[in-house]
Write a structure and sequence with these properties.
The protein has helices spanning about 45-60, 80-85, 95-105, 180-190, 220-225, 235-245, 255-260, and strands at about 5-10, 15-20, 25-30, 35-40, 45, 60-65, 75, 90-95, 120-125, 130, 135-140, 150-155, 155-160, 200, 215-220. With about 290 residues, the protein is of the alpha/beta class. The termini are far apart. The mean pLDDT is about 95. Helix content is about 25%, strand content about 25%. The chain has seven helices and 15 strands. Helix 4 packs across helix 6. A six-stranded mixed β-sheet has the order 1-2-3-6-8-9, with helices on one face.
């Protein structure tokens, strides 16, 4: 059964949120929802997430799943908010525990912060299948950007997270804790062995001047035109390029607040005695 897909784009974080459903009046999943965050004031809003809820309502859809492709460093997740509103399950890859362990230490989080992924409802293993109403979906492990990256395959559509960008932008960075350029190359090859007409839905687009944001590509387009990993690029050449490029990249603007929230499945830290939740800024550590 072919999924129906609606994609929303947040220009502030250049993030795509994809809504996948089986039929009008049926069942849906939301992939990589965005919580609005103002880094200047520390204020959060739910404009992007409410657009998702409005769309679900307009189509009479029941939300079954909130699917994270990884613990994002460039936006805060609205997964917790959507779970509160709908009762849907939040899922991520089983290796999220590795990410939690690293960042619990970096942020010196509270001793009771669990690093077993228990903040999420479901931890998917590689090739594990599940259903979205009448649709069958499969989780595909794609480590490299982070150890916990997943793609979700639903019929001829694959939601690839940060593994690949549009061909004129390239591929994800690998310099975050646990990232590995060789693993990323292997993960990308896994995607590029899929049929050439397989549709690849991206988590981000950073379009060059003159091109509007584009959220969908194909395996054929990536193999032919991706500036970092087109057909003929060797693993050694890719790793060398990726390591050199990553060494010159700035940290994402929202990395410090985003990671602290996203390893908690979109929840804020527990409020302190004054009723306020706080995020930490580790000085001289990154």
């Amino acid at each position: 059964m072919t999924p129906i897909i609606e994609s929303l784009f947040d220009p502030h974080t250049c993030t795509a949120t994809h809504i996948v459903y089986d039929e009008i009046g049926g069942t849906a999943a939301v992939i990589d929802p965005v919580l609005d965050y103002d880094p200047k004031s520390g204020k959060t809003q739910t404009f992007n997430a409410d657009k998702v809820l409005d769309f679900l309502s307009s189509k009479g859809l029941a939300l079954a799943w909130i699917l994270e492709t990884h613990a994002h460093a460039d936006h805060l997740s609205a997964a917790h908010y959507l779970r509160e509103q709908t009762g849907a399950l939040i899922a991520i890859g089983e290796h999220i525990n590795q990410v939690q362990e690293v960042f619990k230490e970096l942020f010196h989080l509270e001793p009771e912060f669990a690093t077993d992924g228990s903040q999420f409802d479901v931890l998917f293993k590689d090739n594990e299948t599940f259903t979205i109403g009448r649709l069958t979906a499969k989780a595909i492990s794609l480590p490299g950007h982070t150890p916990a990256d997943l793609a979700y395959q639903i019929a001829d559509a694959v939601f690839v997270g940060d593994t690949l960008f549009m061909p004129d932008v390239g591929t994800a960075r690998c310099d975050f804790p646990g990232g590995d350029a060789r693993q990323l190359f292997s993960s990308i090859q896994k995607l590029l062995t899929l049929p050439e007409d397989t549709r690849l839905f991206l988590c981000h687009d950073y379009p060059p001047a003159g091109r509007p944001p584009t959220l969908e590509s194909t395996v054929e387009e990536q193999k032919t035109h991706n500036i970092h990993v087109h057909s003929g690029v060797t693993e050694e050449a890719f790793v060398r390029m990726r390591q050199q490029r990553d060494a010159g990249l700035d940290m994402p603007v929202l990395l410090l607040p985003a990671i602290q929230v996203n390893i908690r499945a979109g929840q804020f830290p527990e409020p302190e005695s004054n009723g306020v939740s706080y995020l930490k800024i580790p000085l001289n550590q990154l």
